[in-house]
């Protein structure tokens, strides 16, 4: 592989990494608070639909339409994840079932609304999504500039910023400590006066916000419109990144970058001598296979939040 | 309410609420819920209320075709569920079943009596093998089956496409060459009684699967020990049951049901192996079917027919000007309402208590 090719891969890899990192961070909030969220895929779909729709509807009015699209993705994610919160926190639904229901619902709802709004099974194509840019000054740095600062989508920097924000909130604030306590041992947390229900709502709604934002980022950088297959499993890849990154924000960053690169690699494989013989499907399979291997590797070690997935019963000891 | 009554009443309420919510969404978006229901009735029976047409057996055949695979994936989810496992892997097991059936259909030459059973068997074995993997990971290394099965669905998807595109060779990168007649479930007889619908002999293995499911779970010691593991793993271990073996066996059998679904679709509904762009939703439909059917054979059969009919009604809704996706919305809300059974029960209990005059001290 030539070094030039390696440098060329960066912008694309970073473009794919951003939505994975954002959504996985969302999953981190939810699972750290004790609620398993396999609805990330559905939340991304809703966010992507809202993002694309708002962008299309506003693009003749304002040049910043795509940015309103991102905001719409975030907000729609919060509203949609509310369903998961109500079902699994108040109504004590099985969290995996509720998440599954939301994933099915997202596919139906978004395409239904496309048909109502655009009279077709997809949104209209937007003319401009989020625009690439080069950071003045920094992009002039040799090598590093080409890697991280030249022709990059600003959404990647949003994702990086969110990694630090997440780390700070989860590990350095009382709020984060309380939230994590609810994911480890909710009864003990409750005995210390922490409102478990409130904390879990916080976790799930933040996951909705970040997942919705992730979906909008994905459609507005890597696509031209929203269709049923716009997200094609990226929510599940994000879930995989969360596991692969051991429920830690910096781990998530690493895993997200890794999966972003493996996606980019599938586009470039034909130009790389020792990879050209491998079929493209090999690269599609890679992230999923690695996740299973990572799970095997962590097996027996307690890395995930202990109480995630359990229905909260305040009377249990 | 007794537990038995609850098992029947709660899913029915969930189904009712799902349709109410669906009608509400249709109304809010400026369409008529009546034409939606007309489409659903036509999807089930061919009876056209609006244009006054009688029963048309073609529609019945087509709706059973839709129901067949999701009854099988429903059995798959339910079987693992009875052992306390949450398998989201039916989708992938179905694809592996489908590719195994494709392999045998294309590569083996034999008379129909040998070839067709071999094709179905290949599907069953392929699915069972794919299902056993998360089972082994769970039993030996205690790796959670939910994440593993989700990941394996995607591996199966790309593996399927790899085999079709690079090994069997595809016609225009979409499908394989057509299978020989000896590998097909096609039935001129069933087609003739359903006005040339695609109905085929796949119904036989589907009905057998429902019976076998019920037999294993309810009538055998093996089924009893599976259920025991599902209720309480530690207690089952203490009673001398082989917990690890049961987990692997349960996942493998669950995979077998889904694999059979893949074979039935491949040599029944179609007659060639297919490249799949994205998951087709059979796995998730199966989860919905199993949940509404209460993980019981009979319930799954009925729920499968319900959701199959809903799927068959989709094009009819579309032609009535109602977006076809409303069927998915109704299905998802039904699942959500089933999941919320705790809340529904609370409302029902309060309602029941109001009906019956209470003795003092009953209200807290």
Describe the fold and architecture.
The complex is a heterodimer of chains A (317) and B (364). In chain A, helix 2 crosses helix 9 (196-222) and helix 6 (154-172) packs antiparallel against helix 11. Chain A is built from twelve helices and no strands. Chain A is mainly alpha-helical. Chain A has one domain (3-298): Orthogonal Bundle (ABC transporter involved in vitamin B12 uptake, BtuC). Chain A is globular, with a radius of gyration of 20 Å. Chain B has helices at residues 3-28, 33-45, 57-82, 90-107, 112-141, 145-168, 188-193, 203-219, 221-231, 233-238, 243-269, 282-292, 297-312, 314-319, 326-339, 341-355. The radius of gyration of chain B is 22 Å and the shape is globular. Mean pLDDT of chain B is 91; it is low at 360-364. Chains A and B meet through helix 3, helix 4, helix 10 and helix 12 of A and helix 6, helix 12, helix 15 and helix 16 of B.
A few lines on this structure:
The complex is a heterodimer of chains A (317) and B (364). Chain A is mainly α and 317 residues long.
- Series of secondary-structure elements of chain B, N-terminal to C-terminal: HHHHHHHHHHHHHHHH
What sequence of helices (H) and strands (E) makes up the elements of chain A?
A: HHHHHHHHHHHH
The structural class of chain A is: mainly alpha
Weakly predicted, low-confidence segments of chain B: 360-364
CATH class of chain A: Mainly Alpha
Mean pLDDT of chain B: 91
- List the chains of the largest interface with their residue counts: A-B, 47 and 49 residues
Amount of helix of chain A: 55-70%
Number of helices of chain A: 12
Strand content of chain A: under 5%
Summed over residues and divided by their number, the pLDDT of chain A gives a mean of 91
Q: Give a count of the beta strands of chain A, DSSP E runs of length 2 or more.
A: 0
Described by strand count, sense and barrel closure, the largest sheet of chain B is: none
Distance between the termini of chain A: 58 Å
Radius of gyration of chain A: 20 Å
Helical amount of chain B: over 70%
Rg for CA atoms of chain B: 22 Å
Tally the beta strands of chain B: 0
- Class inferred from helices and paired strands of chain B: mainly alpha
């Amino acid at each position: 592989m030539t070094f030039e090719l390696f440098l060329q891969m960066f912008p694309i890899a970073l473009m794919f990494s951003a939505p994975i990192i954002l959504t996985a961070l969302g999953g981190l909030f939810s699972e750290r608070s004790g609620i398993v969220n396999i609805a990330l895929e559905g939340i991304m779909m809703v966010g992507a639909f809202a993002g694309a729709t708002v962008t299309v509807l506003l693009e003749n009015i304002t040049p910043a339409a795509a940015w309103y699209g991102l905001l719409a993705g975030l907000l729609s994610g919060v509203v949609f994840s509310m369903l998961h919160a109500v079902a699994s926190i108040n109504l004590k639904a099985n969290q995996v079932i509720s998440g599954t229901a939301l994933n099915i619902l997202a596919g139906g709802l978004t395409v239904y609304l496309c048909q109502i709004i655009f009279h077709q099974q997809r949104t209209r194509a937007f003319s401009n999504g989020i625009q690439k840019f080069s950071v003045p000054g920094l992009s002039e740095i040799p090598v590093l500039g080409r890697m991280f600062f030249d022709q990059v989508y600003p959404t990647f920097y949003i994702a990086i910023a969110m990694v630090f924000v997440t780390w700070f909130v989860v590990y350095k604030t009382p709020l984060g400590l309380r939230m994590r306590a609810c994911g480890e041992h909710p009864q003990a947390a409750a005995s210390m006066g922490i409102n478990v229900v409130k904390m879990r709502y916080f976790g799930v709604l933040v996951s909705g916000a970040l997942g919705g934002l992730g979906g909008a980022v994905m459609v507005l950088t890597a696509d031209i419109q929203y269709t049923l297959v716009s997200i094609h499993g990226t929510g599940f890849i994000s879930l995989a990144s969360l596991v692969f990154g051991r429920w830690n924000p910096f781990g998530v960053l690493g895993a997200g970058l890794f999966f972003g690169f493996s996606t980019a690699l599938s586009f470039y494989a034909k130009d790389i001598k020792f990879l050209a013989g491998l079929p493209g499907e090999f690269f599609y399979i890679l992230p999923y296979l690695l996740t299973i291997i990572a799970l095997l590797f962590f097996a027996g070690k307690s890395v995930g939040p202990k109480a995630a997935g359990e229905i909260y019963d305040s009377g249990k000891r | 309410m007794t537990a038995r009554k609850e098992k029947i009443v709660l899913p029915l309420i969930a189904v009712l609420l799902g349709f109410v919510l669906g009608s509400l969404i249709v109304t809010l978006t400026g369409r008529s819920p009546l034409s939606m229901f007309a489409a659903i009735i036509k999807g089930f029976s061919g009876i056209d209320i609006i244009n006054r047409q009688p029963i048309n057996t073609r529609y019945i055949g087509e709706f059973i075709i839709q129901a067949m695979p999701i009854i099988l994936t429903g059995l798959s989810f339910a079987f693992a569920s009875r052992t306390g496992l949450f398998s989201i892997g039916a989708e992938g097991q179905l694809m592996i079943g489908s590719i195994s059936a494709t392999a045998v259909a294309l590569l083996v030459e034999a008379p129909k009596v040998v070839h067709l059973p071999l094709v179905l068997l290949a599907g069953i074995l392929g699915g069972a093998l794919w299902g056993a993997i998360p089972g082994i990971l769970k039993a030996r290394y205690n790796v959670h089956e939910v994440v593993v099965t989700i990941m394996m669905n995607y591996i199966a998807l790309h593996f399927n496409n790899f085999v079709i595109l690079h090994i069997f060779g595809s016609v225009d990168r979409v499908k394989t060459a057509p299978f020989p007649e000896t590998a097909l479930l096609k039935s001129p007889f069933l087609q003739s009684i359903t006005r040339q619908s695609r109905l085929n002999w796949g119904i036989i293995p589907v009905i057998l699967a429902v019976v076998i499911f019920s037999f294993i779970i309810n009538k055998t010691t093996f089924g009893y020990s599976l259920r025991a593991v599902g209720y309480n793993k530690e207690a089952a271990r203490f009673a001398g049951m082989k917990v690890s073996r049961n987990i692997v066996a349960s996942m493998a059998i669950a995979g077998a049901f889904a694999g059979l679904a893949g074979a039935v679709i491949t040599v029944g509904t179609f007659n060639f192996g297919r490249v799949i762009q994205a998951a087709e939703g059979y796995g998730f439909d199966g989860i919905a079917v199993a949940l509404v059917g209460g993980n019981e054979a009979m319930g799954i059969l009925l729920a499968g027919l319900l959701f199959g009919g809903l799927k068959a009604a989709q094009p009819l809704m579309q032609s009535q000007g109602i977006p076809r996706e409303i069927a998915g919305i109704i299905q998802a809300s039904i699942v959500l309402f089933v999941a919320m059974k705790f809340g529904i029960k609370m409302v029902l209990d309060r309602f029941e208590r109001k009906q019956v005059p209470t003795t003092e001290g009953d209200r807290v």
